[in-house]
Amino acid sequence: MSIAYTVGIANFCGMVSTLLGSGVIEYSGMVTVKPDDGECDFTALPWLIVIFQIFLPMVIGIPCVFLIPNVLQTEKLIDWDKEEWYESNDVRADESVNETEDIDDTDNSRQKPRLIT
Question: What torsion do the CA atoms of 8, 9, 12, 13 make, to the nearest 10 degrees?
Fold first, then answer.
C-alpha cells in the first residue's frame, strides 16, 4: 500500500511540476539565459525548491492519507450482495429484454456487463 501511494503521489507531483514549471520560472523572475550577456539569475531557486519539492508534496500527500480505506488489500470494498441498486438495475434490464419477444438473441452483439471478483 505504501509503495503504490508513494509512486502515485510522485507521479502526480511530477506531472504538475512539468506542466507548471516554465510558468513558475517566469513568474519568479529567475532567468536561465540572458540573450545579451549570457548571465543567469538563480536567486529565487532556493525558495522554489522549498515550495515545490517540500511544501507542495506535504500539502497534497498528508490529506490524501485519509482517502485510503482502512481495509486489507485482499478484502472486498463493496459487498455486492447487500447493494440493492445493482440487483434492481440488473433485474429491470433482464425483464425489459424478456418482455419484447421480437428481439433476435443470435444477432445481439451487446453483452451483459460482468463484475470482476
Answer: -150
